[in-house]
Design brief:
This protein has about 200 residues and is an alpha/beta fold. The protein has helices spanning about 5-25, 35-45, 60-70, 70-80, 85-95, 145-165, 175-180; strands at about 25-30, 50-55, 100-105, 120-130, 135-140.
Length: about 200
């Protein structure tokens, strides 16, 4: 990564921290292929502890299941590098940390690891907010080198966090708001019998 790229990343990270600080938002990350680089970019900046709560580095499928609650069925059906897994990683981090925003990254940095339909450079991102917003992004960076894929993934993750941080934040109890991310069963309203008035007999 060139000096100009490093400076740009640092400026983006600083802007995100400043925005979250002004809005009193806390962040957690859930990283696979980046191995903690997103949290590293943020915690490189002094004073980031008032915004960054924790980082989950879940490189293996076992870690994704045990640390973030990703379903084994999801991993078996869609694979670790998928929209479904990235989304469950982001939501899992939000449920396990008392934060307002999370971002999750899972991808194939290379040079190996490619499979049919999933080439080197494929990265799935998901970001989740305490107010129920979830965004997903799929990037195909190509076989540009392991380091370059990981660095580009960091930039994309920071941009997604910035996008959510700029959006509306509903003022609601944190724990109560998390449940909105999980689908709930719809209850059928009870039907009460209508009492009919008896007509007077003439």
């Amino acid at each position: 990564m060139s000096r100009s790229e490093a400076g740009s990343n640092n400026a983006l990270a600083r802007s995100l921290l400043d925005l979250c600080r002004s809005r009193r938002l806390m962040i957690a990350t859930a990283e696979s292929c980046t191995g903690g680089l997103v949290s590293g970019a943020l915690t490189d900046i002094p004073g980031s502890s008032d915004v960054i709560d924790r980082a989950f580095v879940t490189y293996s499928n076992d870690a994704k299941r045990s640390m973030l609650g990703v379903d084994a069925t999801t991993l078996a059906t869609f694979g670790a590098v998928s929209k479904e897994t990235a989304t469950q990683m982001a939501v899992g981090a939000l449920e396990r940390a008392d934060v307002d925003l999370t971002v999750a990254i899972t991808g194939i940095a290379g040079p190996g690891g490619a499979t049919a339909g999933k080439p080197v450079g494929l990265v799935h991102f998901a970001a989740a907010a305490r107010d129920g917003r979830i965004i997903h992004r799929e990037c195909r960076f190509g076989a540009i080198g392991r380091t370059a894929v990981r660095q580009r993934a960091v930039v994309e993750a920071l941009k997604m966090l910035m996008e959510l941080a700029r959006g509306p934040q509903q003022v609601k109890p944190r724990r109560a708001a998390v449940s909105r991310l999980r689908p709930r069963a719809v209850r059928t309203p009870r039907r009460h019998p209508v009492k009919r008035r008896s007509l007077p007999r003439g």
